[in-house]
Amino acid sequence: MGKLYSKHSYLELPHSLYARLEKSQTTQYAIRYLNDAVVNDFNILLQEDDMMIINGNHDDLFAMAYAGHQYGHFTMLGDGRAMMLGELHHQNQRYDVHVKGSGPTPFSRRGDGYATMLSSLKEYLMSEALYQLGVPTTRPFAVLDTNQTVYRDIPQDGSMLIRIGKSHIRVGTVEYARALQEPTILQSLLDYAIDRLYPEIKNSNKLYLALFDQVVKRQAELVAKWQSLGFVHGVLNTDNVLLSGETIDYGPCAFLDEYDPSLTFSSIDRNGRYSYQKQPYITSWNLSKLAAAMVTLIDPDESNAIDLLNQSLAEFEMLYTQYYYEHMAKKLGLVPMQESDKKLIDELLELMQRNKVDYTNTFYQLTCNDYDSLPFSMVEWTLFHDKWIKREPKHDIMKQVNPVVIPRNHLVLQAIEQAAFDDNDELFRTLIDVYKDPYNYDRDVNPKFQEPNPNKERFVTYCGT
Ligand code: AMP
Ligand code: MG
């Protein structure tokens, strides 16, 4: 059974890593959506004590301090509109219970500390969908209606999103601890991260290097999953990268419709820094910032420390490439993968890009042996198909990794706008349900949930804070 505690273990760390906050008044807010799947999975009873914690009606609330490289530039940040409500213990794992949109904190800078209903609904829908697709992620617990107006371009309804994650320690949290220039604080933070996330490495003789290796591996796994599903996070600043390897912060994220690796959806990412194809590269860049923040703890000799970290960082590309091709080989039913399969995968992707086909639906059609609706020319298709069939693709494996349905950007936008602006929840609730079982080939799914955006103009997403 999941048990909630108001006193979070993070409060045992040095005080400069967080700011305590006043008792909150979330009690007065109505729950707009409660994620029954999370309540069930974590077996939370929602008794009076639990509600007190979830409502922030206690004295152990805090905002985490962190920094981050945003679009390449180092900035001091912190939870400017979020706070920790408590800790959830479930099956020997501790989870943060965190709320976003809860009002000003000492880290709010010029922001108001609030969140719009639109942004909370997007995170709720997308993060639960990613979870159901098998991607490590924070999970949405509830959306609250604050009955407050939040001023953005236009006045909007305010909301709070409560989410659960293995830990909200970001690469930027480590950068912050390093910037304090007090080695003991940095060390306590990393010891805590190990205890919390990677207890299995506790006896390693190069403890902090082992931690770095773990983060490299988890991030390589995470980005390989994103790439294989065509997911674009959109704002991979180091403050949005977790040491746990879970996806966090669903602002301008989107899924590819057409397979074009250069695509960026975020309105503010003008140079395509966080485009689909750059996600592995930028994750490695982000990890280099983590390495730089950890250097003093790796080895007393700085140049040794740098060498060791560089070797570990070099593993990222190797691991990422391995995981990525393993996923892609499965998408084509090629298990066990052979070295030559990589060329076949690349060939198909080239064909897909040249013909501007839908990424998800192409793999779905291949899985269903529905070749007729693929728009490839007979010649190019035959060339690929002959080689592929020789490898005897396993369709049962393909079904496990090629989703029948993914969140389509235009539908997600329509659903959250209707729910936030018109008080019409119908599509939102339908999508929550449709995205629940994305690999189920026996379920009847209305084709309109599978179709890409009929509007061929490039889809643009907004951070929507
Ligand atoms: P994000 O873009 O949501 O990852 O946020 C980046 C930083 O800006 C974090 O430190 C947030 O806490 C802060 N932030 C974003 N929106 C607001 C807001 N409305 N009020 C205060 N801080 C904010
Ligand atoms: Mg963030």
UniProtKB/TrEMBL annotation:
Nucleotidyltransferase involved in the post-translational modification of proteins. It can catalyze the addition of adenosine monophosphate (AMP) or uridine monophosphate (UMP) to a protein, resulting in modifications known as AMPylation and UMPylation. Belongs to the SELO family. Pfam families: SelO. The gene is ydiU. Coiled coil: none annotated. It comes from Candidatus Xianfuyuplasma coldseepsis. Its cofactor is Mg(2+); Mn(2+). PANTHER family: PROTEIN ADENYLYLTRANSFERASE SELO, MITOCHONDRIAL. GO terms for molecular function: AMPylase activity; ATP binding; magnesium ion binding; manganese ion binding. Its EC number is 2.7.7.-, 2.7.7.108. It comes from the Bacteria. It catalyses: L-threonyl-[protein] + ATP = 3-O-(5'-adenylyl)-L-threonyl-[protein] + diphosphate; L-tyrosyl-[protein] + ATP = O-(5'-adenylyl)-L-tyrosyl-[protein] + diphosphate; L-tyrosyl-[protein] + UTP = O-(5'-uridylyl)-L-tyrosyl-[protein] + diphosphate; L-seryl-[protein] + UTP = O-(5'-uridylyl)-L-seryl-[protein] + diphosphate. It is an enzyme of class 2 (transferase). Keywords: ATP-binding, Magnesium, Manganese, Metal-binding, Nucleotide-binding, Nucleotidyltransferase, Transferase. Mg(2+) binds at residues 240, 249. ATP binds at residues 78, 80-81, 100, 112-113, 163, 170, 249. The lineage of its organism: Bacteria, Bacillati, Mycoplasmatota, Mollicutes, Candidatus Izemoplasmatales. The active site is at 239 (proton acceptor). This is Protein nucleotidyltransferase YdiU.
